[in-house]
Design a protein that fits this description.
- Its EC number is 4.1.1.23.
- One of its GO terms (molecular function) is orotidine-5'-phosphate decarboxylase activity.
- Keywords: Decarboxylase, Lyase, Pyrimidine biosynthesis.
- InterPro entries: Aldolase_TIM, OMPdecase_AS, OMPdecase_type-2, OMPdeCOase_dom, RibuloseP-bd_barrel.
- Pathway: Pyrimidine metabolism; UMP biosynthesis via de novo pathway; UMP from orotate: step 2/2.
- By secondary structure, the chain is of the alpha/beta class.
- It has one domain (about 5-275): Alpha-Beta Barrel (TIM Barrel), CATH 3.20.20.70.
- It is built from 12 helices and 8 strands.
- It has helices spanning about 5-20, 30-35, 40-55, 65-70, 75-90, 105-115, 140-145, 165, 175-195, 235-245, 255-260, 265-280; strands at about 20-25, 60-65, 95-100, 125-130, 150-155, 200-205, 225, 250-255.
- It has an 8-stranded parallel barrel, surrounded by 6 helices.
- Helix 3 (about 40-55) packs parallel to helix 5 (about 75-90), helix 3 (about 40-55) packs across helix 12 (about 265-280) and helix 6 (about 105-115) packs parallel to helix 7 (about 140-145).
- The longest helix has 20 residues, at about 175-195.
- The radius of gyration is 18 Å and the shape is globular.
- The chain starts with 6 loop residues before the first helix and ends with a helix.
- The relative contact order is 0.15.
């Protein structure tokens, strides 16, 4: 197996060459309907393959939403495997949006599924949930470092149900969300010191629609995945307000705003490139 460059280095290169945009591959049943596709594994594969065809050669990152693939059982998982593999072959980085989180041997199994050297669901990074404790993610972080992959940890999400937990104060007085960012920052600092990489393997999810918060992100040295750009309501001004001086490491994510342009591949690609150009122009001074 050819050794991979560290995830953070590959992310920095991808964003530099292709621009700061992640497009979600979200085969929601309503989108299958809109594209004239059946709500079955065949419709799923056609949808996902068209997204890869249109996007993976142009955008820095694609993010398949695993739940929409898992909904079709083993056939859907097989489609997810092919989507990840073909998108990476086309040059995009792939973040599997799986939000996995557990302890001990179970977390190790999740890590092997997505981040192992010969992972069946091999991707460049996977989203994980830290709410059994950041330390419980250690098997995933270790596997990511060992195999040149990454983990993207939920920190401050845009869903209203998460506010009570994520804004709650820990014993130290900082918010739960800040404690997660701080733990990620510490891990990245060690990794970057050892490897000389610009970015570490541990990113965080912070919603682009959360509004102004007291979250301190400037020391993260990792990717900040920012869902909510576009159809969910966030624009350039929101990115500036939410992320401030950490904007340089933000990877805005959009799904429906681009996917609604389908099923024509050229229309999908054009919608993604317009969004990318809007982000580049709006954040140029950062």
């Amino acid at each position: 197996m050819v050794a991979r460059a560290p995830f953070g280095s590959r992310m920095a290169t991808a964003v530099s060459s292709r621009g700061p945009l992640c497009v979600g591959i979200d085969p929601h049943p309503e989108l299958l309907d809109a594209w004239g596709l059946a709500r079955d594994a065949n419709g799923l594969e056609w949808f996902a393959s068209r997204c890869v065809e249109a996007l993976a050669g142009e955008v820095a990152v694609v993010k398949p939403q695993c739940a929409f693939f898992e909904a079709y059982g083993s056939k859907g998982i097989a489609v997810l495997e092919r989507v990840c593999a073909t998108a990476m072959e086309a040059g995009a980085l792939v973040i599997a949006d799986a939000k996995r989180g557990d302890v001990g041997s179970t977390m190790s199994a999740y890590a092997e599924a997505f981040l192992g050297a010969d992972a069946p669901l091999a991707c460049d990074a996977v989203t994980v949930s830290p709410y059994l404790g950041f330390g419980a993610l250690e098997p995933a972080v270790t596997a990511a470092e060992r195999n040149g992959r990454g983990v993207i940890v939920l920190a401050l999400t845009s869903n209203p149900e998460g506010r009570d937990l994520q804004h709650a104060a820990t014993e130290s007085g900082q918010s739960v969300a800040q404690s997660i960012v701080n733990a990620a920052s510490e891990r990245n600092a060690t990794h970057c010191a050892e490897t000389g990489a610009q970015l570490g393997p541990v990113g965080v999810v912070v919603g682009a629609t959360v509004g102004q918060s007291e979250l301190e992100l400037s020391e993260l040295r990792g990717t900040i995945l920012a869902p909510g750009f576009g159809a969910q309501g966030a624009g350039i001004d929101d990115l500036r307000k939410v992320f401030g001086n950490a904007l340089r490491d933000v990877l805005p994510t959009t799904s429906r705003a681009v996917l609604r342009a389908g099923p024509n591949a050229e229309s999908l690609r054009a919608a993604a490139l317009r969004t990318r150009d809007e982000i580049v122009a709006g954040t140029a001074d950062h």
